[in-house]
Every structure is written in C-alpha cells, then in structure tokens.
Amino acid sequence: MTIHIERMIEVPLREVWAGEASFFTPWLAANPDYLSEALGMNLELVGTEVAVGPFSADIVLVDATSNRRVIVENFLEATDHDHLGKLITYASGLEGSYAVLIARTFRPEHRSALKWLNDISKSDTGFFGIEVRAVRIGTSAPAVQLDVVVEPDEWQRQAREVAAGQLSESQARYIEWWSEFLPALQEAIPGWTSASKPQPANWLNLPTGRTGVRYGVSFSWPTGATGYRVRVELYMDDGATWWPRLLAHQTEINTALGPELVWEPLDNSKASRIAKYLENADPKDLESWPRYRTWAIEALGQFRNALQPILVTATPSI
After folding, report:
1. Mean pLDDT of the chain
2. Class of domain 167-313 as given by CATH
3. Is the pLDDT of residue 317 over 60?
4. CB atoms < 10 A from the CB of 56, how many?
5. 8-152: in CATH 3.40.50.300
6. Using CA atoms, how far apart are residues 201 and 77, in angstroms rounded to an integer?
7. Which residues contact 42 (CB under 8 A, 6 or more apart)?
8. Domain boundaries, the chain
C-alpha cells in the first residue's frame, strides 16, 4: 500500500499579511489564542496601537490567569535594534510584566539581548522572542506557526529567588501547589487553560471569554474565620454590569451548583462574585493537597458547565 504524504511548503509572510500595522497586528489581536498557546498564558486583548507618550505599542494584552500585562511588538522581517528598543520602551511605559517581540527571524545578537534581560529579571517579568512562519500543505490555505525562540527559564529563576531568600516560604509553597494543580486541571478539563507557569500567589484565574469576568480558585482567609478556605468563584470586575444578568438566572444557577453557593455583591467594591468554599483548608497541610485539588477541580468544572452558557449568550446590563 502506498501512503501519500505531502510536503510542508513555506509561504512568504507578505503573501499572507501585506504589512504589520494594517494586516498582521489586527489578525493577531483578533486571534489571541495563537499567542496564548505559544506563551502558556490565557491572553485577553486590551488594545492595539496603545499610546505610550508620542508613540504606540502594537498590541497590549492581559494574562487572565495572573492579571499581568503583556506588551507585543511585531515585525515581519528579521529583528533589528529599532524594534527591540521599541519593545523595551513600550513595556516600561505601560508597566508590562511580559514583553514579546515577534519577527520573521531573530538575529543572534537580539536573541542574546533578550536572554540577558531574562537573566537579570525577577520571576514576575519576562521577555519572549517568537519567530512567525506561514506554511501550507499542498494547496491548502496557509497555516500560522509561532515558534518561541527565547523565553525566561522560570524554574531556574524561581529556584534562584528561593535560594536567595527573595521568595517567602508561603510563596514557594504556592509555586509548588500550582505546579501540581495546573497539570491536573488540564488533564481533567482539556483545552480550558493555556497557563503553564505556577505563580507565587494564593490565587489563580481562568478565562471565561468575557473581559473582566473570570473563574478563580484561591486559598482565602475571610474576616472572622478560624482558618483558610479554598474558594472557587466567578468573579466580575464590574458587578453593576454583570450581576443583574446573572441574578435573572439565579434559580437555575443555584439548582446546578447546590445550596452551598454564596452570592457576594461585595458592597464596598465595584466587583462581585459567586462562590463556593471548602472550609478548613490549610495550604500548609501538604497531605491534604490531593483532597483540596480534587474538590477545586470538580467545583471549577461545575461552575463552567453551569455558567458558561449564560456568559456566552448574555448581554451585560448597562
């Protein structure tokens, strides 16, 4: 039996996008999932051509998992000093946590420059270099590949910070917790999150596809409580916008998620949340981590199943 196999053919980038500003930037902004998968983040668009003094950054996004800002500079040619300098300037001016330079190819000196910036940066910042390619198989439509050629060595940097005493004991513990939690979540609910970096914080966000609305899991210490709790929630930055829409479905949401569901309008804040709690969940109790993790992942799945259809179809109240 003869097996027919086509060759992958490289397509000139200018045949796919005639230019950066008018074609590539709008395409990348409209399809942040490509960059999310490449970077291991859950990216949401903040804006394009975002003003930085008299200049403008190509694309600004936010990682929904960590709430950290991502600045992108793109160029459909080989890297040059001009675009590398712009990236650093824009990341500084917009207080970006991550800076991403996208180009057709990376010159060795620019790879070295980004690597050096990563080497001297802390674990809550990072510089990425990505080579963009367009390919086709036979006569197919072009497909896009984003190949990461420079990225921060998160494990090495976090280990260095722990050794130097720059991370507290609790921060190091949360890194370990999330490093076990994320693979388990991705196995239980494939395709939901692209997040791969464990963070030294007690919380983690997950995307809903709606800007300013996110699922979350955290260790919380509420006022007046006797100990930590694990909280799973739907969190709304602007409760006035989303709260009335969800209240219209309160009966079906309560039925799906159970009587232990808590509706919290957070009167002292613009934000609101709907949450469930696992009581007496001490993050220092490592032997109980599997139980906490199982509960949280099951609860997240229940939240997503019950709330996502409403979020997708809902028109927020104005």
Report:
1. 90
2. alpha beta
3. no
4. 15
5. no
6. 38
7. 36, 63, 64, 65, 193, 194, 195, 205, 206, 207
8. 8-152, 167-313
